[in-house]
Design goal:
Chain lengths: ~120, ~110
């Protein structure tokens, strides 16, 4: 079945540092890929997405490129802020014959940014 | 109200209680989902309703009973839960094949 693997956390960075959170996936067909973010005490919010190979999703300074050859969708940000502290989830959506976009999530990576 | 709302935000219940979680979406979507988020585990998809029909039930124990009376509302009825059922329960909605929008969750504690 489909699966998503994220780098183990937690990740602790200083403000303005460069961020990379690795994500690789296993899926049949042509899934869409997502990064969701969960701030403390809140639900998940869609951060960015890519629907086909070589697409780059971007939002709020975060970027991720859909790499089919390496089955990866790594999240990057050039300069993190304290307000970026949250849990980040990589996910894929694969209809696989269903009538809806079934999401498969990675385990989540906790990011803490210090001033 | 906009987006996806969930009530209550926090719930404490004993193992013999019966309670219900409510989810409402104001986005005009036609698919709704229940997820369980436990510490140190990936999000677990519990149930999916598509066009008001249950289309997925991921081997969830019968002490969890979903109900979708219309395309905007989703309930999760709880009875005789166990302490290991304590978790954050998240509701989401989407258009068919579209991205999912999540509610803030209900933090459930079973004593």
């Amino acid at each position: 079945g489909d699966s998503v693997t994220q780098m183990e956390g937690p990740v602790t960075l200083s403000e303005e540092a460069f961020l990379t959170i690795n994500c690789t996936y296993t899926a049949t067909g042509y899934p869409s890929l997502f990064w969701y973010v969960q701030y403390p005490g809140e639900g998940l919010q869609l951060l960015l997405k890519a629907t086909k190979a070589d697409d780059k999703g971007s939002n709020k300074g975060f970027e991720a490129t859909y790499r089919k050859e390496t089955t990866s969708f790594h999240l990057e940000k050039g300069s993190v802020q304290v307000s970026d502290s949250a849990v980040y989830f990589c996910a894929l959506s694969n209809a696989g014959g269903t009538s809806y976009g079934k999401l498969t999530f990675g385990q989540g990576t906790i990011l803490t940014v210090h001033p | 109200e906009t987006g996806v709302t969930q009530t209550p935000r926090h719930l404490v219940m004993g193992m013999t209680n019966k309670k219900s979680l409510k989810c409402e979406q104001h986005l005009g979507h036609n698919a709704m989902y229940w997820y369980k988020q436990s510490a140190k585990k990936p999000l677990e998809l519990m149930f999916v309703y598509s066009l008001e029909e249950r289309v997925e039930n991921n081997s969830v124990p019968s002490r969890f009973s979903p109900e979708c009376p219309n395309s905007s509302h989703l309930f999760l009825h709880l009875h005789t839960l166990q302490p290991e059922d304590s978790a954050l329960y998240l509701c989401a909605s989407s258009q068919l094949y579209g991205e999912q929008f999540f509610g803030p969750g209900t933090r459930l504690t079973v004593l």
